[in-house]
């Protein structure tokens, strides 16, 4: 995120489940870390390009997430391993999650 120009402040916690719950992250969207930018929650290994897209086209989203730890997603790169294609999800304060974007590695895919 820093390399993409975002200012990052890290706060270590042993209460990540509580942080997620208070932020309204759906259980099915849980990743390994939770971030905040403006009014939005960023959950898991979300590419910086997806965060930039979220900020450039505001909607009434509560947040975006990459559940789990897809191979090749930001922070999950493995030398000599091709990155997985994975979904980035969005959610609102009410209603089910919806697909926000597709990505491979740290790159968003068209469509």
List the helices and strands and how they pair.
Layout: H1 16-23, E1 34-37, E2 40-44, H2 48-56, E3 63-66, E4 85-91, E5 98-104, E6 107-108
Parallel strand pairs: 2-3
Antiparallel strand pairs: 1-2, 3-4, 4-5, 5-6
Number of strands: 6
Low-confidence stretches: none
**Order of secondary-structure elements:** HEEHEEEE
Largest beta-sheet characterization: 6 strands, mixed
Number of helices: 2
Instruction: Characterize the overall form.
Output: globular
Please, could you describe this protein's structure?
- The protein is an alpha+beta fold and about 110 residues long.
- Helices cover about 15% and strands about 25% of the residues.
- The protein has helices at about 15-25, 50-55, and strands spanning about 35, 40-45, 65, 85-90, 100-105, 105-110.
- Strands 1-2-3-4-5-6 form a six-stranded mixed beta sheet, with helices on both faces.
- The chain is globular.
- The two termini are about 25 Å apart.
- The relative contact order is 0.19.
- The mean pLDDT is about 95.
